[in-house]
Design a protein that fits this description.
heterodimer, A: about 120 residues, mainly beta, 11 strands, B: about 110 residues, four-stranded antiparallel sheet, about 50% strand
């Protein structure tokens, strides 16, 4: 079946550095992509999403880049803080022509981000 | 708002037992889903619902049943627990099909012995 995968399972950075977490996806029909953050013992927390008709979207300290040509997604975190330490997942889904999700997400394996003070 | 509430937080079952994992949301969300998360893996979709009375299978539905009689509740039933169902289970909801950002509950850690 289709899957969403990650290039690196772990990433260690120094506080204040910028972090880049990568994700490769295989379903060329995916219509939207989401990044989630999961802290130990908690459920995933929504960070940012991007539709397939966009190549970049910015949030607070985060930027998601989408390259549909090579089926690659990245999450950039600016000025990484110790509180950013967590597992980060990318997920993808499909929507109809009106942009309404079909309700199914496919998650990648996850990247462990560790921020050192 | 309490968000997405899952009960119980922890459960130990014997092989062959059945049980229901509860999930409730108070945000009037139409979409609800159940995922399982195994060590070192991402979340895998078990069942999902796009509205009351509508459910469908996800990636790993075998051994699980769901129903959606109300907008608020989406229980997950394990029919005959097996050790392979040891996992952390997450329930999630989103307002509508145009809202891609699901809100997740805090999870139920299930061990089947």
């Amino acid at each position: 079946g289709e899957s969403v995968g990650l290039h690196l399972p772990t990433l260690s950075v120094q506080e204040g550095d910028n972090s880049i977490i990568n994700c490769a996806y295989s379903n060329s029909a995916s219509d939207y992509f989401i990044w989630y953050k999961q802290e130990s013992g908690k459920g995933p927390q929504f960070i940012i999403d991007i539709r397939s008709n966009m190549d970049k979207r910015q949030g607070q300290r985060v930027t998601v880049l989408l390259n549909k040509t090579v089926k690659h997604l990245s999450l950039q975190i600016a000025a990484t803080q110790p509180g950013d330490s967590a597992v980060y997942f990318c997920a993808d889904g499909r929507a109809n022509a009106g942009g309404t999700s079909y309700g199914k997400l496919t998650f990648g394996q996850g990247t462990i981000l560790t921020v050192h003070p | 708002n309490a968000g997405v509430t899952q009960t119980p937080k922890f459960q130990v079952l014997k092989t062959g037992q059945s049980m229901t994992l509860q999930c409730a949301q108070d945000m009037n969300h139409e979409y609800m889903s159940w995922y399982r998360q195994d060590p070192g893996m991402g979340l895998r979709l078990i069942h999902y619902s796009v509205g009351a009375g509508i459910t469908d299978q996800g990636e790993v539905p075998n051994g699980y049943n769901v129903s959606r009689s109300t907008t608020e509740d989406f229980p997950l039933r394990l029919l005959s627990a097996a050790p392979s169902q040891t996992s952390v289970y997450f329930c999630a909801s989103s307002l509508s099909g145009g809202d891609y950002g699901y809100t997740f509950g805090s999870g139920t850690r299930l061990t089947v012995v």
